Amino acid sequence: MTSNKKEKINKKEKLVGKRFGKLKVLSVYKKGKYKKCKCICDCGNTTDVYYSNLVSGRTISCGCRGGEIANRYKNIVGEIYHDLIVEEKTEKREDGLIVWKCRCLKCGKYIEVTKKQLDRGYVKDCGNHKYEDLLGQKIGELTIISFDKNREKYLCQCSCGKSTYVSRSNLISSHTLSCGHLKDNRKYKYVDGALPYLLTGKIPSNNTSGVKGVSQTKSGKWVSYITLRKKRYTLGTFKKKEDAIRARKKAEIDFFLPIIEKDQMRKQKTKHRKERV
Ligand SMILES: [Zn+2]
Ligand SMILES: [Zn+2]
Ligand SMILES: [Zn+2]
């Protein structure tokens, strides 16, 4: 056997079992000058197809999807799909479908796509605009400068001057609002180990007395307590509610007031500093 013949047989064997659209090749034979393939269609029919029609994608079924085929071969040059205008039919085929050269209306760049991709909206532009919607926007302290494709994150400029990379999801969810300096600020809000804003906070919803730090026990007595630096201190148990409230108010003056005053002093200082700048 000559090597040439061997090659031909190998080629034939490779074709058998191969799929073209709905057609699967059962056997390959020659008719006159042309190669033909006996195929089985997904619908169950067998059909004989010219090899060239098969590999070019012109025939993709026994004919049961004729309308669809016509649609696939429709000339769509000049048609606009979202932000793409079809400019040219290429010689390329993808899964038996024509590949069309399209120009992106946003930037003028060319891409090649099939009509299926256009019809289904899988491709709406050249693909370089996915991240553009956020560019230039301000989220919290961050101004979004550009998108880094390697990092898959946005380069952002923080109001404090630092730049930082933030993921799209963290920006959209407002999870990240600064380079981190906002979080750092919280640390400095502590005064003597306590957070002043907690001291002046609202009455918890499960409160039974209407006064913060005073609650009634099952036996009907009133307990007074105070929470500072995450620790809860009991101030006493009282028969009268007024006494429990008095104990609590005294403790607030003793423990909270110095912290609140210090915090207010500091806030005024930073305000002055800012005004001078
Ligand atoms: Zn069929
Ligand atoms: Zn584009
Ligand atoms: Zn910052």
From TrEMBL:
SUPFAM superfamilies: DNA-binding domain (SSF54171). The keyword Glycoprotein does not apply. It comes from the Bacteria. It comes from Anaerosphaera multitolerans. The keyword Magnesium does not apply. This is AP2 domain-containing protein. One of its GO terms (molecular function) is DNA-binding transcription factor activity. Keywords: DNA-binding, Transcription, Transcription regulation. The lineage of its organism: Bacteria, Bacillati, Bacillota, Tissierellia, Tissierellales.
